[in-house]
């Protein structure tokens, strides 16, 4: 557990149905060549969240390096291409979310950052390109800075949301819920 939290890494939760053993090994090797790690965790049980899907968690060390501009260019490129591959693999899968009294829905990829000030969440509902991943990373850095400069900013949710003109905006959870009529 300590290695997961303290390395430059990405944690994939419940990814077992999306990747073959060979694909997992290939991702692990790409990350390890650049002093980064990728971890695969399985989480069982009932989940209750407005953001459902397969979680991709960027750990704190990796986020701190992104925010500080300390991630080497090759490692940054590996992160971007890996996120594209992971998100697109999820979106092209046959995985479905099943809920009582509803039709099965496609699984979304959720990129998350957990920090003292709360969480930054982006739910990605379609395939993604390198350019779009770069926009998301820039939005994460901006949301991270906003979160850490928000007085009494503990336990808040900062949502990176796509606008109608395909730009990204950062919303607090109540604003996101209001915008999407989920209240």
- What is the overall number of helices? 6
- Secondary-structure-based class equals alpha/beta
Q: How much helix, percentage-wise, in residues?
A: 25-40%
Q: Strand sequence of the main sheet, in spatial order? A: 2-1-3-6-7-8-9
Strand content: 25-35%
Average of per-residue pLDDT values: 86
Q: What's the story with the biggest beta sheet?
A: 7 strands, mixed
* Strand segment tally: 9
Q: Based on CA inertia axes, which overall geometry fits?
A: globular
What is the string of helix and strand elements? HEHEEHHEEEEHEEH
The parts where pLDDT drops under 50 for at least 5 residues are: none
Report the span from N to C terminus.
Answer: 36 Å
Radius of gyration, CA atoms, in whole angstroms: 16 Å
How would you describe this structure in keywords?
183 residues, alpha/beta, seven-stranded mixed sheet, two-stranded antiparallel ribbon, globular
Description:
This protein is α/β, with parallel strands linked by helices and 183 residues long. It is built from 6 helices and 9 strands, in the order αβαββααββββαββα. The chain has helices spanning 2-6, 21-33, 60-68, 73-91, 130-148, 173-179; strands spanning 9-13, 37-41, 53-58, 96-97, 105-106, 108-115, 118-124, 156-162, 168-172. The strands form 2 sheets. A 7-stranded mixed sheet has the order 2-1-3-6-7-8-9. The longest helix has 19 residues, at 73-91. The chain is globular, with a radius of gyration of 16 Å. The termini are far apart.
């Amino acid at each position: 557990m300590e290695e997961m939290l303290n390395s430059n890494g990405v944690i994939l939760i419940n990814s077992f149905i999306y990747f073959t053993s060979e694909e997992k090994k290939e991702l692990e090797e790409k990350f390890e060549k650049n002093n980064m790690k990728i971890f695969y965790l399985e989480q069982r049980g009932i989940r209750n969240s407005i953001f459902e899907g397969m979680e991709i968690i960027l750990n704190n060390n990796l986020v701190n390096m992104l925010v500080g501009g300390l991630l080497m260019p090759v490692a940054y490129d590996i992160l971007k291409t890996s996120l594209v591959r992971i998100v697109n693999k999820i979106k092209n899968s046959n995985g479905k979310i099943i809920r009582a009294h509803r039709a099965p829905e496609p699984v979304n990829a959720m990129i998350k950052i957990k920090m003292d000030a709360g969480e930054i969440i982006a739910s990605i509902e379609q395939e993604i390109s390198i350019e779009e991943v770069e926009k998301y990373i820039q939005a994460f850095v901006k949301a991270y800075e906003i979160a850490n400069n928000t007085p009494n900013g503990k336990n808040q949710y900062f949502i990176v949301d796509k606008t109608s003109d395909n730009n990204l905006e950062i919303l607090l959870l109540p604003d996101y819920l209001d915008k999407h009529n989920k209240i």
